[in-house]
Amino acid sequence: MNRLHLALIIALAVVFMAPSAFAKKKKKSLSVPEFYELAQPTIATIQFSQEFVAGGQVQRTRGMTDGFVVSEDGLVLVSGRVRFPQRGSGGRLSGGSLPDLGNFELRFSDGRVHEAEVVTFDDDLNLGLLRITTLEAGEELPAVSFKRGYDAQVGQGLHSMTLYTQDYGRQPVYSPVAINALLDVPQNVWSLSGASSNILGAPLWNGRGHVVGVVANVPMSPWGGRQVVPDLTGAVGLPYERFADWLDAAMAQAREESAAASEPEPEAQAWMGVMFQPLEKDLAAHLGISEGGGIVVTRIVPGSPAEAAGLAPLDVLVEVGGERIAVLQPSDSTTFSRTIRGYDPGTTIEFVRESAGGARETVAMTLAATPTSELHAERRTNDSFELTARQLTLDTLLGQRLGPDTPGVVVDSVTRAGWAGLSGLYKGLIIQRIDEHDVTDLDTFEAALAAVQEARPDQVLFFVRWGRTTRFLVAEPDWDELSTDAP
Amino acid sequence: MLPPPAAEARRGDLQEAIFAVQEQALSALVNIQPITESYTRGERQKQASVGSGFLVDAAGHIVTNYHVAGQAKHLMVTLSNKERIEAELVGEDPLTDLAVIRIPAEKVAEYGLHPLAFGTSADLQVGQFVMALGSPLALARTMTFGIVSNTERYLPEGMSLPTGERTGEFNTWIQTDAAINPGNSGGPLIDLGGKVVGVNARGAMFADNIGFAIPADTASAVVRDLIDGGEVNRSYAGLQFQPLKDWEGLFGLEKPTGVLVANVEAGGPAAAAGVQAGDILTQLGDWSGVVRFDEELPSLYQLLADLPIGEGVPVKALRRGEAEELSLEMTTVAVGRLSGDRFEATAWGFTVKGITEQMVFEMELVSGEGVLIEGVRIGGPAHAGKLHRGLVLEAIEGESVADLDGFKAMYEKHVGSEGNILLQTRRYETLGLVLVKPGAADGSIGGPR
Questions:
Q1: CB distance from A437 to chain B under 8 Å?
Q2: Which residue of chain B comes nearest to A182, CA vs CA?
Q3: Claim to verify: residue B365 and residue B413 sit in the same structural domain
Q4: Which of A241, A459, A471 lies at the smallest CB-CB distance from B446?
Q5: With an 8 Å Cβ cutoff, are A286 and B435 in contact?
Q6: For residue B384, what is the domain's CATH number?
Q7: Does the pLDDT at position A279 exceed 80?
Q8: Which pLDDT does position A190 carry in this prediction?
Q9: Cα-based distances in Å from B161 to A112, A182, A372, A409, B235
Q10: What's the pLDDT at A406?
Q11: Which of B99, B263, B264, B318 could form a disulfide with A470 if both were Cys (CB 3.0 to 4.6 A apart)?
Q12: Domain A376-475 top-level CATH class
């Protein structure tokens, strides 16, 4: 049966290779060569590394996956093979697991190479969004277009494409794929024939060149691929409908972060020091709190104005400055954040806290200035060690669950084959000592490297930290080769 | 040309030796068919697999890998005489990836099965002939032959089991080119004398004949503990080491000595004793020596784990050239399973697992209270409410969830109600509220169909 479908696809492909004049008139379906031209610049193979602590040691492994460009400003969807060894704990990794991965390198079939970083990842969909960080100003990338509302039918043909590995020159591989079953279990996915595990994560295009789904990893199926999917390849297609909302939100988040990063550090914005979730309508009703929106405080930053004001996690705030906090869904959250940032630090504002049953009380809070974030942290580069460090900011400390008095600087970037990189230093590690010099901030970091460059020892000792784990790394610089300019 | 007679004779000896091993060892070989359960996608899924094991005594104890039998809900074994019989779990030790299961002693006698004995792995030499027995790709009673390729392989990137537990901390591995494939796990690696020198545990993927076995010296001690008490007790110091390599000058040493302290866990016994990262430990109880290479670490960790609990262990340290004398009082740490028992809350579309002491330690959980969300069914009532794997479920409808039994009781209490259910979750210091909407049937989100 699957063979029959494949035969049908091939037959259709032949039909589609009719003269282009015909295609122009009809403008309905792309020929395979037309599709090939359209699709191949949008797909990339992605190499990445992941670091983790096992047996008390920081380990690194490398992995590879496929991805495709979903917007001209360089956002890339990844799926399929970005799986995580269930190392140490399911919990430490889940949810925000992708940020543990790093050094994403995208390679396109035409030789373009870009670097990327993680925007967000959804464990349950097994999809992640990356942002390319190496685009020139104004540079745009060919991107796929998505289409909602695809009317999937058994027997329908879809196009798919991935790249061969480096050994085969990263040639684009075209795969005709057919839907051979519409599955209700697992909920609303397509069983595919013609899709092997080699094209996990690849986009699925309809005949008009719109992406209508992705080839999903087999674990999408709660029963294991082979039991539900008659095709022995076990591949299933995840319809775009299933992840469209997530993708929209992820892309909005990416653009907001990019905008924030490109803005100069804003002058003294106000800060209250909470994390929160929206007070969605159903949640408000369930909690017995008045309708109209609000925020549920989920975390209080130690030492913050919110802590001083006596707020606690799970408090519900419904008004600020006499106005309703109209946060009803995740996308409303930025409005509230902007409102708070818009105050002058030092201003005392009043919130209304509402508890179950509608009891209200006023909470006064004197806002502080927003602490510097990783995005706006000061950075200093040492060219000899090909190492850039940034100041240790509150968000890094919270992320690594470290106390506010933790000394050090954070590795912001390091050339892998530079002397510091070869020692095993990588992005995100906190440097706390270089040789016998304690590193507490960027000034002591620079002074330590200057002293080292003056002394020119054969070996340079770095004492580094990641969360609760510490380790020693040793660089062995070739001083004759290094520039000895002061950093 | 005919081979020289001496070589011919030697070849004959080898063949005879292999036949002798085969006669002796195949009798003890066991094919294990565990039924395990997976809860990772928000539903309980049963999985059948195949592994190997070998009989070690007349009481019916069978040695295998933890990753074969450790998390099994049901164990069937096929003996060398092709009889199938049910087995029970005696004990497990993820840190060495070993488990012991048992069949009735009378069956051992009835079928005339011959247990295998552990030899020693300390004397193994690279190039020594060995045979691997097991059920590669479920092909029962398979024997493969090769040599020891390396006696002290250190596998830094293979420190976690598929089930998430750390492993291999206390041993280097025997590398062999005797073919080891999936299904060989738990089977014996045997020398020409018919003694078990290792327990086959893993192979390198996409490689030819690169297999690894747990050395007999590690395995036999663990197996003894498991048979005697069902578990392995180890003492805990809260210390991680690094080999000194050629860094002695960086630590003020004239020549390589001792072992470098890389990390001291806050609140642990070593921290309490005053040990600091960067110290060079030159004496640890009866141990003194030098650790310069990664391969030397596992035996030191084993020594640390064997130190007496609750007594002051003398420690000598060099700190920036100055000698320090410290006393280290070891404690126990919960080892064993990383995962507690699991449960599927079918109507709510997610699975949970109980929180063990080991999970609190490894995952840096705030406490042992609550249950951990193991998986969320895509499109299920909790997925719509944005519940995620990895969150700790702390309370349901404002009532605290103490543990897995508490969760089950509360699930039973609420499962019939048609209204939404409020869950309170935690991820480290961040709390959250999630509404589960049991009325929302699967399939209500997404999809043009």
A1: no
A2: B449
A3: yes
A4: A241
A5: yes
A6: 2.30.42.10
A7: yes
A8: 84
A9: 38, 36, 40, 34, 22
A10: 95
A11: B263
A12: mainly beta
Q: Which two tokens stand for residue B59?
A: 């009481």
A456 touches chain B (CB under 8 A): no
Query: Of B62, B77, B111, which closes a domain?
Result: B111
b/e for A405-435, b at 16 or more Cβ within 10 A? eeebbbbbebeeebbbbbbbbbbbbbbbbbb
Could you write out the DSSP letters of every residue in A16-36? Answer: HTS-HHHHHHH--S--HHHHH
Cα–Cα dist A396/B444, whole Å: 39
Predicted local confidence at residue B100, as pLDDT: 97
Cα–Cα dist A330/B76, whole Å:
50
Q: Is B405 a catalytic residue?
A: no
Annotated catalytic residue B191: no
Cα distances (angstroms) measured from residue A200 to each of A163, A196, B318 = 12, 7, 54
Find chain A residues with C-beta within 8 A of B258's C-beta. none
> Does A282 reach chain B within 8 Å, measured CB to CB?
yes
* Tokens 């929160």, located at residue: A276
Q: Please tell me which of the candidates A89, A148, A283 has its beta carbon nearest to residue B433.
A: A283
Domain ranges of chain A: 1-264, 270-369, 376-475
Q: Closest by alpha carbon to A389, among A487, A268, A468?
A: A487
Q: CATH assignment of A270-369?
A: 2.30.42.10
Q: Judge whether B93 lies within some domain.
A: yes
**Residue A186: cis peptide before it, omega within 30 degrees of 0:** yes
Nearest-CB residue to B429 (from A188, A223, A299): A299
Interatomic CA distance for residues B262 and B277, integer angstroms: 5
**CB-based contact A411:A446 (threshold 8 Å):** no
Asked if the domains A270-369 and A376-475 are classified in one and the same CATH topology, the answer is yes
Mean pLDDT over each residue of chain A, to the nearest integer: 79
Domain A1-264, CATH number (from 2.40.10.120, 3.40.640.10, 3.40.50.300, 3.40.190.10): 2.40.10.120
Closest of A175, A206, A179, A174 to residue A192, by C-alpha? A179
Domain span at residue B207 reads 129-229
- A107–chain B nearest CA distance, Å: 24
CB A435 within 8 A of CB B250: yes
Residue B97 bears catalytic tag: yes
Residue A478 above 90 pLDDT?
Answer: no
Query: A89 and B169: CB-CB below 8 Å?
Result: no
